[in-house]
Design a protein that fits this description.
Radius of gyration: 18 Å
InterPro entries: TMEM64, VTT_dom
Distance between the termini: 36 Å
Strand content: under 5%
Pfam families: VTT_dom (PF09335)
Subcellular location: Cell membrane
Membrane topology: Multi-pass membrane protein
Number of helices: 9
Largest sheet: none
Number of strands: 0
Main location: membrane
Helix content: over 70%
Structural class: mainly alpha
Shape: globular
């Protein structure tokens, strides 16, 4: 992927942005783009490109789910669940849903695609989704970008620290996920 993007020279950032915005919609792992963005463009430009791409693809996933699946799934479940079960799923307010979204984004429990498509099925407003999504996405993207930007010198202390940060980030997610069971 890195070689493919690099061959576009000055247009590489645009190609990267397009690929990083579109491929995750089709369940391509978006974390790869954070690492590649840091490696190819450094931390600053990589951060800008990767965060813009993440905002684009997560919002597109949300909207696809919201406008093409939500009513069908809601109607399907309404016929098969008790009122209490249905309200437990669809009765959460925007603030609770937004808080949980931030937690899901900050701690890598579930893949972004699953979270984004799932949130389109809820009754959260797009405004609340957009803001919570943005707040939750940025820290994780920056951690992966930092790692990618250090890949050019894997024997450096900076690379070691970035790798430790990634391991801690993933471990915290695993611990939280286990405690949520």
């Amino acid at each position: 992927m890195q070689n493919f993007i690099e061959q576009f020279g000055n247009c590489a950032p645009i190609i990267f942005l397009l690929l990083a915005s579109i491929l995750p919609i089709f369940l391509f792992p978006p974390g790869i783009f954070s690492v590649i963005g840091g490696l190819l463009f450094g931390f600053k430009l990589g951060a800008v490109l990767t965060i813009i791409a993440a905002i684009i693809y997560t919002n597109i996933m949300f909207l696809i789910s919201r406008y093409f699946a939500r009513n069908k799934i809601e109607n399907f479940l309404e016929k098969r669940l008790t009122l209490k079960q249905f309200n437990r799923i669809f009765g959460l307010n925007d603030n609770k849903l937004a808080t949980f979204l931030i937690i899901c984004r900050l701690i890598p429990i579930l893949p972004n695609s699953i979270v984004s498509y799932s949130y389109g099925l809820t009754r959260i407003s797009f405004k609340h989704y957009f803001i919570a999504n943005l707040i939750g996405l940025i820290p994780g993207r920056l951690i992966w970008l930092n790692f990618g930007s250090k890949l050019n010198n894997i024997w450096s202390l900076e690379f070691l620290m970035a790798a430790i940060l990634i391991i801690a980030f993933v471990a915290i997610g695993a611990i939280v996920a286990k405690n949520m069971e």
